Amino acid sequence: MDQKTQQVLQKLLHQIANERSNNRALKNQIADLINRFKQHKIQFKAVEKWIEKAAQRIKYIEDIPGKRIPYLLNFVIELPPSGNAEGAQDGIVSIANQQFFDTQQIPMDGPFVATHYMGALQLKTYSLGPTEARPQDVAAGTEVITPLSGRFRPLASTNDDFSGAYIGPGTTVLTGISDVNTPRPGELDFLFTLEDEGSRRARQNQIPQPSRYIFTEVDRPYYLAVSDFYERGSVIRWTVTPTREMDLIEMAYVAYNGFSGGEGADIDGVDPNRRVFASGGTLYLTMGGYKILQAQTPAV
What is the rounded CA–CA span in Å between residue 255 and residue 166? Predict the structure, then answer.
């Protein structure tokens, strides 16, 4: 074989070696791409599962699993006897601009969803203390049973259908309990705030709400704009601040349905069968709505 032919063959062998080397590199690149594709496919599946899981997550209160039952979350605030009596004795206090509050915790059997607020004042009457004409009367601030004891009264003086009772020490002889149409007995006006103490989330801005809102019409609850969700274990604080004293009450007391208040002229010197009392009571405030009963795990 001549020299020229050998050179050509060597050149061809060199080209074949280069092509084989290139083919191996290409094969490696293809294998690398296949591996990358498999990894991306796994990642794509993971992303797909994540998206599917996200789509199934709870978005609305209605999506929370559990049995719905009606539920009333009740708050109770005791208001001491108050009144604008001259020279008020011990036991008769001022409640105007004083804060009173109650806290309630959501039970652990499930979250609570509030839909409206309600409330009422159960009236109590208290003695103003013995006088010269009535030395046998009990001490000031002692609760006494009268015809108004235990009655439920509205939470704002602008929403009161009660038609008759004279308020305060009077100077006019009254022949009947409904002779005049003056401020009603046991009316309470106050400002209130609501707060979830766990999350420190208030249900209003820095300005408290008037009690008039709780019943915007006669016995119409305060409906919320949206349902208010409270997780289990949440502690809710309801604070009220009376804007004025509760009124003194004058009423028939002696021989009224068996009630006995002592004989002698009343403190106004008019009628021995009438008596003036301080008023207070038990304030019931309610968040109405429903519980979502479920297992002992977080709802969201």
Answer: 18
